[in-house]
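Course exercise 7: structure representation. Students receive a sequence record and must write out the corresponding structure in token form. The form below is the worked example handed out in class, using RING-type E3 ubiquitin transferase (318 residues). Read each field label carefully; the graders check that inputs and outputs are placed in the correct fields and that the protein name is recorded exactly as given.

STUDENT ID: A-19
EXERCISE PROTEIN: RING-type E3 ubiquitin transferase
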Amino acid sequence: MAPGNNKSVEVPEFQAMDLELLTSNKRLENVQQNKPSIAPSAKAGTSSINGVHELLECPICTNLMYPPIHQCPNGLTLCSNCKLRVHNHCPTCRHELGNIRCLALEKVAESLDLPCRYNDLGCADTFPYYSKSKHEQACRFRPYDCPYAGSECSVTGDIPALVSHLKNDHKVDMHGGCTFDHRYVKSNPHEIENATWMLTVFNCFGRHFCLHFEAFLLGTSPVYMAFLRFMGDEDEAKNFTYSLEVGGNGRKMVWQGVPMSIRDSHSKVRDSCDGLIIHRNIALFFSGGNHQELKLLRHRSSLERTVNESQQSIHPKL
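STUDENT ANSWER:
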């Protein structure tokens, strides 16, 4: 029944589907009978799969549709999220949507094997339609987000591209080698109104690491925090351990940990307090009692690679 009318209207079984969907179903049957035609090198098979793939894109948000896939009485489809956004009315023909499921299109999707969306970045695997999205959320070839803190940077890419982006666009200090020195000075250590970020990228063991040092309010307490992130995936990050050491005035503090991956956002790592946290009073003590200026004269970091029997270390100094 077409909702909103005063009399019943019988909708024939195939009238509720788009003619293009019926045509794609027939093409899909031919493709499934001849599996090699799905290969990217076979133009006819690729064209057929692409046609069905386009039918599975929501016309409103352009994302792939997953059950329940809804359709209006005229056979126009859309995803369940957009069904709510358009207030249960078809945005094309203006018919009330009701609760009509496009079971035929859901069945077509169930029979598809599609390449990962990151196939142009190196992922050569194909997946059933309904499990493709889950794979893509964890695909090791998916691009990384820019690890720079303090901005809403939307740049993504592989590690070499991000290293170049950090150097050229964010003007981040780069280090090749295992040691470097830095001195943190804050002219008025009693005021931390806004977070202050510093980032250094260094190359060690043929990998890149982000060393963050920043000042912010932890609750109502002003603190300084240093932590390390690995420019790569979580599994490889676990192959390294690091220690951070800060001191002065005859004292020192040491933190030991495992670097988290840049897959985890900067704010997630910081808010987890997984790093060396220095409260302002202790930082002032390290400065030698001068409460007019904060000087962290010595901040040493070391990183060890745990996958080898003979461990190697780097010793960057902040």
